[in-house]
């Protein structure tokens, strides 16, 4: 009996393997059309930054009455993103009002459940979608000495603890809710864009990532400095004073975004 040459067998095996993988991916997409929005933090950085796959972006703000984002927060976010990402089709803002979730403070699993129940905008065709929940409750990670203002927890998912911000503002009348809120949201978007060294792929991680605060920048006045989303209660006055304006990304962060396909 004459057998086909080894090269032909390898080619046939490769075709069968490729076909099998393609079918598996198709099955995953059919079984869960939201799978593109359930990846690890930083996994969609290049997809958001460039227009190689996605030509436009939708940002869905989800909140209950009394905890909606400030208009300035939304406007400054769009400006921040337009300076960094390429989306010729534009950035669309969608707002979804929900009944106030109960049983706060919320741990991250509860935050994910709230997203599962209320998110309506998902990545589809050439549009990538990002979900932002403005929470009516505090984070379960808050302590007697510190509070969390926001968390980016999946590739296109963010929670902003608006209740915590309102509490801080109530106790510090000179503080500015717009700047505090916008700083937090842009900081968390920075994490979604892969900062700092989220996927262990930054071009200069050793001099950039804070050794004492992983995934944050060593430069104190940078947007990605760790204090942008975590406040020591005894230093609120100092924090507010230092955040009179929304911090900008430093040169190291900008270089890393450009390396991932950003402007």
Task: Please give a structural write-up.
It is a single chain. This protein is 38% helix and 14% strand. By secondary structure, it is α/β, with parallel strands linked by helices. The protein has a single domain (33-259), classed as Collagenase (Catalytic Domain). A 5-stranded mixed beta sheet has the order 2-1-3-6-5, with helices on both faces. Strand 5 and strand 6 (157-160) form a beta hairpin. The longest helix is centred in the first third of the chain and has 26 residues, at 6-31.
Could you name the key traits of this structure?
263 residues, alpha/beta, Collagenase (Catalytic Domain), 5-stranded mixed sheet, two-stranded antiparallel sheet, 7 strands, 14% strand, globular
């Amino acid at each position: 009996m004459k057998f086909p040459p080894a090269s032909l067998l390898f080619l046939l095996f490769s075709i069968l393997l490729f076909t099998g993988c393609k079918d598996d991916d198709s099955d995953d997409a059919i079984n869960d059309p939201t799978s593109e929005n359930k990846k690890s933090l930083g996994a969609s950085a290049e997809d958001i930054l460039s227009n190689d796959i996605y030509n436009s972006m939708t940002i869905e703000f989800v909140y209950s009455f009394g905890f909606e984002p400030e208009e300035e927060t939304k406007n400054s976010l769009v400006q921040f993103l337009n300076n960094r990402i390429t989306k010729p089709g534009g950035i669309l803002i969608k707002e979804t009002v929900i009944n106030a979730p109960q049983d706060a403070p919320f741990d991250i699993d509860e935050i994910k459940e709230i997203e599962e129940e209320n998110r309506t905008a998902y990545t589809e065709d050439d549009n990538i979608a990002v979900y932002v929940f403005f929470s009516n409750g505090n984070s379960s990670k808050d302590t007697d000495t510190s509070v969390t203002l926001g968390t980016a927890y999946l590739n296109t998912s963010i929670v902003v603890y608006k209740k915590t911000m309102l509490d801080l503002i109530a106790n510090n009348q000179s503080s500015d809710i717009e700047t505090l809120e916008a700083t937090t949201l842009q900081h968390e978007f920075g994490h979604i864009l892969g900062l700092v060294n989220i996927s262990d792929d930054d071009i200069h991680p050793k001099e950039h990532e804070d050794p004492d605060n992983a995934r944050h920048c060593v430069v104190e006045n940078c947007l990605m400095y760790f204090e942008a989303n975590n406040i020591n209660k005894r230093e609120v006055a100092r924090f507010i004073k230092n955040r009179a304006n929304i911090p900008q990304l430093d040169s190291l962060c900008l270089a890393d975004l450009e390396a991932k396909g950003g402007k």
